[in-house]
Amino acid sequence: MKRRTISFVIGTIAVVLLAIFGALLIANDYRGTRDVSWIDEVEDLIKKENWVPNSEYIPMQDWAFFIYENGEGQYFYLKSNEEFISHINSLMNRIDRQVEESIPDDLLKEILANDKVLAVVHRFSTNSSFWRSPNNFGSNVNYDRVYFVLEEKLDTGLEGTIIVRNVFGELNSKISVWQIS
Q1: Helices (H) and strands (E) in the chain — how many of each?
Q2: Residues 74, 68: Cα–Cα separation, whole Å
Q3: pTM
Q4: Digits of tens for pLDDT over the chain (181 positions)?
C-alpha cells in the first residue's frame, strides 16, 4: 500500500511537471524567438552622415522616413534611398509572427515619445507581387505607416518589433505588432 501511494505521488508529480514543461514550450513557440539582427543593419543605413542635408518633407512623397528619439521626430532623406527602400521591403517580407493583434493609438504615441523608432510613411499594398510573407501579414491589406522599434525605454518588450497601421478605408485603421523570428 505504501509503495503504491509513493508511486502514485511520484507519477502525479511527473505528470504535473511534464504539463508545466509542455505549456512553457508551447508558450515559447507561440512568441517565437525574435530576430533583432536587422536593427544594426538599419542603424548603419540611417546614420546621419548618410542623410541628404537640408532635405524637406513633402507630404505627397512616395516614401518618407522619420526617426523618433527622445520625443522628437526628424524627417530624413538618404543618399542611398533606393537601397534603403529595397532593405525595408526585404524586412517587410521577413515578418513572420504577429505579437499583438491590436494596440491602442495612445500606446503608439507613448512609444514614439519615449523609444527610438524608425517610421516609414508609404502606401504599402500587399496586393502587389513583391509580398512573399509566409503568414497572414501580407494578405490583401494596406499599410500606410510602419514603425520599426530600434530601441525601447518603456520596458514594454517591443524592441525589435515592427508596428504597422492597417488602413481600412478613409477613417478606419488598426495598429498591430509583428516580429521577425
Answers
A1: 4, 7
A2: 6
A3: 0.74
A4: 677 777 766 767 756 555 565 544 444 444 469 999 999 999 998 888 888 888 888 877 778 899 999 889 999 888 888 888 889 888 988 888 999 989 999 999 999 999 999 999 886 655 544 444 445 555 555 677 899 999 999 888 999 999 988 776 556 778 999 999 9
